[in-house]
Design goal:
- The protein has about 290 residues and is α+β, with helices and mostly antiparallel strands.
- It has one domain: 3-Layer(aba) Sandwich (Pathogenesis-related Protein p14a), CATH 3.40.33.
- The protein contains eight helices and nine strands.
- Strands 1, 2, 3, 6 and 7 form a five-stranded mixed beta sheet that branches. Strands 4-5 form a two-stranded antiparallel sheet.
């Protein structure tokens, strides 16, 4: 997990262009990095895959991973994590098909590392990865979240680093806490994951990759605001009915990118120049709360 120095780009998109059709090779990354979908433009498993079993999620798995993330965020919002302060502005996550599409394209290469660039037109994208030989994808999400046990409370108010020193066997060693802080990042409200399974003798290896938008782990920024759950919700959100304590996005014609279907890789979006500028400006605002 890397700390991401947040930057924001404003795009002008011609009418009729879609998220799926936008050229990933031109607009999403810095000059020194290549977007995953640009690097691997064709679907299919990579040359590093061994005895590839499957690499696609079903709806039940998507729902399970999404609910797992929101349930963990809800624990923070309701003050049920004793080692960490209660959060007042954590937003309920919704599934994002484009993030799943990008995560799957990278996971299908069977390279266990963070890809160089996975950004969307809408925002910079963060990522958690893990693999297991015996546990479920949901249990690995819990594994990421359990880093709250080693995360100093001071990082909640101001994200300065993701590697922290912990005492192990009498020695001080560095450990990563960035998986937890990404899951707990208040304004990361979009989630898309990929799971692949390979047969690595004598067992099955499951690799999970989850992409988050907008990205968390931004330097010198709070992970979330401290306070009673749902007491300081960002503009455009309201207290969640499904996950009390979280802030749920309000789906409307003015802000359709908060609606469940927005971001679907199979949906065409009639962007206009004004429309994309509106999205960009709002993304800046919500990141500042």
């Amino acid at each position: 997990m890397r700390i991401i120095q947040y930057y924001f780009l404003l795009y002008l998109v011609v009418p009729g262009e879609s998220v799926r059709d936008t050229e990933y090779c031109c607009t999403y990354c810095s000059r020194r990095r290549t977007h995953t979908v640009c690097k691997y433009p064709k679907a299919g498993i990579g040359k590093d895959c061994v005895r590839f079993i499957r690499g696609s999620l079903i709806d039940k798995e998507r729902t399970s991973l999404l609910n797992m993330h929101n349930s963990l965020r809800q624990l923070i919002a309701q003050g049920k994590i004793k080692q960490q302060p209660q959060g007042s502005n954590l937003v309920e996550m919704i599934w994002d098909d484009e993030l799943e599409f990008i995560a799957k394209r990278w996971n299908d290469q069977c390279i266990y590392a963070h890809d160089d660039c996975r950004n969307s037109l809408r925002f910079v994208v963060g990522q958690n990865i893990a693999y297991t030989f015996s546990k479920t994808a949901e249990s690995m999400t819990q594994f990421w979240f359990d880093e709250y046990l080693i995360t100093p409370q001071s990082l909640i108010n101001n994200m300065t680093e993701i590697e922290v020193f912990v005492k192990l066997s009498g020695e001080m060693k560095k450990r990563d806490s960035g998986h937890f802080t990404q899951i707990a990042w208040a304004n990361s409200y979009r989630l898309g994951c990929s799971v692949n399974v390979q047969f690595v003798i004598p067992d099955f290896k499951t690799t999970i990759m989850c992409d988050y938008g907008p990205a968390g782990n931004i330097l010198n920024t709070p992970v979330y605001k401290i306070g009673k759950g749902c007491s300081d919700c960002p503009v455009g959100t309201e207290c969640s009915k499904r996950f009390p304590g979280l802030c749920a996005m309000k789906c409307s014609k003015l802000y359709p990118f908060f609606c469940e279907g927005y971001g679907s890789a199979s949906t065409i979006f009639p962007f206009s120049k004004f429309y994309v500028i509106t999205v960009s400006l709002f993304a800046s605002l919500i990141h500042s709360f």
